[in-house]
């Protein structure tokens, strides 16, 4: 008995849906008459509902354009900046290895050594604020304390091929 009532309910619901598609509501003009566009749409409503083959192709184009413009292009910019940062990190590391394995012969007078080492650095990432530090301050003739280390920086600028 319940199965029969559910089937009747589904059939009635389906008929109501079909009727609402075939006879759309009256226009909001208040006159009660339908416009020519409403009549034409009501006449072809069943064919619109039955034939939706091009809907997916159209939606795919919209989704593709959205993803490319709002997701992939900004990610490409972030990736380019990341590659620049990784290149700068590698240039600093290579410079550090070169000065670590070839220390200055005289810690107190290392200006000639410093200029020769800066000339060998990667030109894409120029070394700035290069210092030979002894203890807490820069090395000099009076300060040759330990520990000795190097301090240097570089600047990563965005890659702009159009500039």
Give a structural overview.
- With 163 residues, the protein is mainly alpha-helical.
- It folds into two domains: 1-24 and 34-46; 59-163, no CATH class.
- 56% of the residues lie in helices and 9% in strands.
- The chain contains five helices and three strands; from the N terminus they run H-H-H-H-H-E-E-E.
- Strands 2-1-3 form a three-stranded antiparallel sheet, with no helix packed on it.
- A hairpin with a 2-residue loop joins strand 1 and strand 2.
Question: What is the topological layout?
Answer:
Elements: H1 2-22, H2 36-43, H3 45-50, H4 53-100, H5 111-119, E1 128-134, E2 137-138, E3 148-153
What labels would you give this structure?
single chain; 163 residues; 5 helices; 9% strand
The number of distinct β-strands equals: 3
Helix content: 55-70%
Q: What gross morphology would you assign?
A: rod-shaped
Number of domains: 2
Strand order of the largest sheet: 2-1-3
**Cα distance, first to last residue?**
79 Å
Offer a quick outline of the entry.
This protein is mostly helical. It has helices at 2-22, 36-43, 45-50, 53-100, 111-119, and strands at residues 128-134, 137-138, 148-153. The protein has 2 domains: 1-24 and 34-46; 59-163, no CATH class.
